[in-house]
Design brief:
Blueprint lengths: L19 E2 L2 E2 L2 E3 L6 E3 L12 E3 L4 E4 L13 E3 L4 E4 L13 E3 L4 E5 L19 E3 L17 H41 L1
Parallel strand pairs: 3-5, 4-6, 5-7, 6-8, 7-9, 8-10, 10-11
Antiparallel strand pairs: 1-2
Organism: Oryza punctata
Membrane topology: Single-pass membrane protein; Single-pass type I membrane protein
GO biological process, one term: brassinosteroid mediated signaling pathway
Length: about 190
């Protein structure tokens, strides 16, 4: 992994600067606004315990590395205001703890990952990427590039359709039986 150099040494770091949450030391990497260039090193995926990764406001270029999808504890991923290109990796929707995500102001393209927590992110997380498409941007993808929803989402949609159909059918059937009984009872009443 390429080394980042700093004027500070370990002896200069004050333990009071460490961030604690509920008594647990959080693993965070924040190198925002440092004028870093080049690609985001794929070795970043080795930092499996990472909770927060902020690489915003640098000059990183190239694709979002697939290795970021290995950061299964990641809660916040901030990649805004760089020169990133390519597509947003579909596997990012498997980062179930991800609650904050921002890739605005890059040059990303293609469909925005859907499903899981990605459906909850605000469209401001994606603005400034004129080649991105997806429902949350009101810029729909053409069918050739459209991302198919994960199988679990598709099966949930089909299940929902079946439930709606079943409820509607049941209501119409009950109404029909009730109407039939009313007509039959009226006919019996008229016969006497």
């Amino acid at each position: 992994m390429p080394m980042l150099k700093s004027e500070k040494t370990v002896a200069d770091i004050d333990a009071r600067d460490w961030k604690y949450e509920y008594g647990i030391l959080r693993a965070e990497v924040n190198v925002a606004r440092n004028s870093f260039t080049g690609v985001i090193p794929p070795e970043i995926g080795w930092l499996k315990a990472l909770d927060m990764l902020d690489l915003s406001f640098n000059s990183f270029s190239g694709d979002i590395p697939q290795a970021i999808c290995n950061l299964t504890n990641l809660e916040k991923l901030e990649l805004s205001s760089n020169n990133l290109t390519g597509a947003i990796p579909l596997e990012l929707n498997k980062l179930h703890f991800l609650s904050a995500f921002n890739v605005s102001n890059n040059d990303l393209e293609g469909p925005i990952t859907t499903g899981s927590q990605f459906d909850t992110f605000d469209n401001s997380s994606f603005i400034g990427n004129p080649k991105l498409c997806g429902g949350m941007l009101s810029r729909y993808c053409n069918s050739a590039k459209a991302v198919h929803a994960p199988a679990s989402t598709l099966s949930t949609d089909k299940c929902s359709e079946k439930v709606i159909f079943g409820v509607a059918f049941g209501q119409f059937f009950a109404f029909g039986v009730l109407l039939d009984q009313m007509v039959l009872s009226k006919l019996r009443f008229l016969q006497f």
